[in-house]
Amino acid sequence: MNRFLVRLLFVCIICVGSSSLLVSCKAKGKVAEASKKEDSKELSAERIVKNHYANKIDFKTLYIKSSVKYEDEKQSQNLSAEIKIKKDEQILVSIRFLGITMAKALITPVSVSYYEKLNGTYFEGDFSTLSKWLGTDLDYNKVQNMLIGQTLDDLTKGKYQDSLIDQSYRLEDLADSNTKKYFFFDKDLFLLNKQEISQTSENRNIEILYSNYKKYNENQLPADIGINAVQEKGKTSIDLEYNNITINEELNFPYSVPSGYKRILIK
Questions:
Q1: pTM for the full predicted model
Q2: Three-state SS at 187
Q3: Kind of pairing, strands 112-116 and 234-247?
């Protein structure tokens, strides 16, 4: 597994057409009631946002075991990931290949750190540096939201154009003409199907798809996440399949850079 792959996997964990594979599951009462009454109507953007956030996720910690499939135009790779989340405080991601830890990332609201074993390098910085490197604004909340099936942006603070496409509600962000953002929601349950960011002038596009959800302690959490990125250098896809999720158990977040590793700068 080369250095480029480790970096892309790290990006997939921390960054940013609806899916027809969304598995039906029970929603909270007021969401289900609203969908029954307005099933045949196009809802306003405000109503879509309200119904989506009615599926509030309530947890203190999450422990996720995930399989990872990476593919680009030249190679494919199967790995595993262990993701620990302490809500609104820290996220620890371990990437493994054949049971060996190849990379670790620790993310907090004020810092981003990771190291990778193959080349013996590590990074320490913040989201401003990382956002510049990736070409899109990031913060802790966006990373956490992506992993738990929530929208990257706070939809209550923006302006959106609503539409009904292929039996999914779509919200289009009207804030920035250069960067286009779209959010797609299941028509019945208002769970997130897909979120997409496009920058036409830079020939860059990334979409994050959620094709299945499972219920854990009344929380609807994604069972898999598909990330498709297109840029001038080519196409990349990364699929995360959540094999097991544990909620609200006591977790440790051990992270330390092995001795002898060389610090790298991201420009």
A1: 0.80
A2: coil
A3: unpaired
φ, ψ of residue 147 in degrees (nearest 5): -75, -20
Q: Which two tokens stand for residue 61?
A: 């910690």
Higher pLDDT, 114 or 234: 114
Spatial contact of 174 and 161, defined as CB atoms under 8 Å apart: yes
Which token pair is 52? 């989506």
Give tens-digit pLDDT for 242-252. 999 999 999 99
Q: Which structure tokens are listed for 32? A: 């289900």
Answer yes or no: is pLDDT of 132 > 80: no
Q: How far is CA 7 from CA 2, 119, 164, in A?
A: 9, 11, 36
CA 112, 116, 118: angle at the middle one, nearest 5?
165
CB 244 within 8 A of CB 65: yes
Q: Which residues, listed in sequence order, are joined to residue 226 by a DSSP beta bridge? A: 209, 239
Pairing of strands 179-186, 192-199: antiparallel
Task: Read off the pLDDT of residues 214-242 as tens digits, 9 standing for 90 and up.
Answer: 988 888 999 999 988 887 778 888 899 99
**Is residue 82 very low, low, confident or very high in pLDDT (cuts 50, 70, 90)?**
very high
In the chain, where does DSSP find H-type helix?
Answer: 3-14, 29-37, 45-53, 127-134, 140-148
β-sheet bridge partners, residue 209: 194, 226
Contact between 45 and 52 (Cβ < 8 Å): no
3-class DSSP assignment, residue 139? coil
**What is the chain's mean pLDDT, rounded?**
80
